[in-house]
Amino acid sequence: MKLATLGPPGTYSDVVATMYQQQPGVVFGARLVYYSHLQRCLQALPDEADYAVVPIENISEGFVPVVLDYLVSADLHIVSEHYQSIEFSACGAVTELSECKRLYVQFVASGQCRDFIDALGDVEILTTQSNSESLLLAAEYGQGAMAIVPNHLLADAAAETMPWRQANVHDYSHNATRFLLLAPGPAQVEDVIEDDGRARKTSLMVMNDNDRPGLLEQVLHCFSTRRLNLSSIVSRPTGQGFGQYHFFMDVEASLNNIAMQGALRALQQITRVKVLGCYG
Ligand SMILES: O=C(O)C(=O)C[C@]1(C(=O)O)C=C[C@@H](O)C=C1
């Protein structure tokens, strides 16, 4: 069994994939396969891997657009979620920060370390696809280069050669990212029929094929009348024109909950809905 995740090894995605691989569950004992960017991890399903671990949402940066957009059309479902605490360090081939000429930082990580990056002043910022790639590129560039890396990567051989090492450069001490374990195929309602009493969440994608006044209000009504709480609702452009959006929603209820089933039936009469998974 293969589990796709973002590489090179050392990313936070790798930390979470390793956690899944080592604990009893559907991917226990799976072999990790690394991909250089998030889109490739997702595309690995189903031909190159059986499961994938990707970040979906950060406490300050919000949702990761590339993952949401992929979920609109891909034949994938969510098996599980994991909240990972995220801590960043800066390291580089400099003896003081004023010597920094170039900073490598992953595209989502940059928004989580804004204060540190702003204080560097006028340096060249190169965004990367992963936090471990940032470290490798800074080490390769040498004198004057710095990287934002996960705290745990300060122990990596590449970081150990760097004279400047500063831990905890993230803006929020409680920084965290939510990760999803994804599998190919549609979510199976039967999978969750057995209610084990655990609190569950159902994720849905409300597809906007036919924009009209009041559509979102009607959608929300399906949940509010049944006293179902949404823990998130985010929109993504359909790409068809301004003002047209799909909606990604997390509902705090299991798919086998009677109220949730009623909401789903009501929603299906209003618009096209894709059930992304029921987990928790
Ligand atoms: O580069 C990594 O370490 C990742 O796992 C990716 C990622 C992300 O894209 O959100 C994961 C967690 C952090 O929020 C920053 C980066």
TrEMBL record:
Catalytic function, reaction form: prephenate + H(+) = 3-phenylpyruvate + CO2 + H2O
PROSITE patterns: ACT, PREPHENATE_DEHYDR_3
Domain ACT positions: 204-280
Domain Prephenate dehydratase: 2-184
UniProt entry tagged with the keyword Amino-acid biosynthesis: yes
Enzyme class at the top of the EC tree: lyase
EC number: 4.2.1.51
Pathway per the UniProt entry: Amino-acid biosynthesis; L-phenylalanine biosynthesis; phenylpyruvate from prephenate: step 1/1
Organism domain of life: Bacteria
Coiled coil: none
Gene3D superfamilies per UniProt: 3.30.70.260, Periplasmic binding protein-like II
Keywords: Amino-acid biosynthesis, Aromatic amino acid biosynthesis, Lyase, Phenylalanine biosynthesis
Cited PANTHER family: PREPHENATE DEHYDRATASE P PROTEIN, PREPHENATE DEHYDRATASE-RELATED
Protein name according to UniProt: prephenate dehydratase
Native species: Aliidiomarina sedimenti
Lineage of the species this protein comes from: Bacteria, Pseudomonadati, Pseudomonadota, Gammaproteobacteria, Alteromonadales
